[in-house]
Design brief:
alpha/beta; six-stranded mixed sheet; four-stranded mixed sheet; 10 strands; about 15% strand; globular
Length: about 260
């Protein structure tokens, strides 16, 4: 394992560490509440591809920094590599969600704090989710006029239709204990015990048969509905999404076109 090295993932906000058979990823953009640039999303996609190509890797552990796991996509349009992103033929291809599900390694989300929007998308596509009792969860996409196909394809499968509708249509922020009762996370622990619990989960994963583990992951995920990416692409070009994003950035109520 010593000769294995994690490649550059394309974002200075992704801190990587290889610990035995676990790739650790930490999102570090606290000045923007760990909001995700497209470079961060694409870096996570590259991490999933790299881990899948290296059968020595048992798991990828994803976490945030300080009080934020992730506040969702950065709506300001900031990017570290505009030229690199411009060559993506599929505008959604830098999103990591499908690649996380296809990766043979298990993805473990260590939810250390606020988890909104794209942060929710990430945990919905991870295999094991362990949350601090300080974590908070929210689905605010419709307040911005964003039809998120990654969220709609997974949320109802995880928490049930009635609760998914409630979370989508009210955008209420819920606590870690509420998220646990809904089935959104697998385990909630006191914040000071988060590292210990995640380390235990990673140790247990390493004891399982790699081929059987990957087969079960494929089988479980094969039962999930596909993502309707066209939903998002149509939304990106809409006046509603433009107004929603402008209202968010200008910190005002939206004036929705009818």
């Amino acid at each position: 394992m010593s000769e294995l090295a994690v490649p550059q993932l394309g974002s200075r906000h992704l801190v990587t560490r290889l610990d035995g058979q676990v790739l650790h990823l930490r999102i570090d953009r606290t000045e923007r509440r760990n909001s995700f640039t497209q470079d961060i999303y694409r870096g996570l996609k590259r991490a999933a591809i790299w881990a899948n190509d290296h059968p020595e890797i048992d798991a990828v552990c994803l976490t945030g920094t300080d009080e934020w796991f992730g506040a969702g996509g950065d709506m300001s349009g900031r990017t570290e590599d505009p030229e690199g992103l411009a060559v993506e033929w599929d505008a959604t291809d830098q999103f990591p969600f499908r690649h996380i599900e296809r990766c043979r390694a298990l993805w473990v989300a260590r939810v250390n704090g606020l988890c909104h929007a794209g942060g929710m998308d990430l945990i919905l596509h991870c295999d094991v989710v362990v949350a601090s009792d300080r974590a908070r969860f929210r689905v605010p996409e419709l307040l911005r006029g964003i039809p998120d196909p990654f969220m709609s394809a997974r949320l109802a499968q995880v928490v049930g239709l009635a609760r998914a509708r409630y979370l989508f249509f009210t955008a209420e922020e819920i606590s870690a204990s509420e998220a646990l009762s809904m089935g959104l996370v697998g385990k909630v622990v006191p914040h000071e015990d988060l590292d210990r619990q995640v380390a235990w989960v990673l140790e247990r994963i390493a004891l399982t048969g790699p081929a059987s583990r990957a087969a079960i992951k494929r089988d479980l995920n094969s039962r999930l509905p596909p993502h309707d990416v066209g939903l998002f692409m149509a939304g990106v070009r809409s006046d509603e999404m433009r107004e929603g994003m402008a209202a968010f950035l200008e910190k005002r109520p939206p004036n929705w076109p009818r």
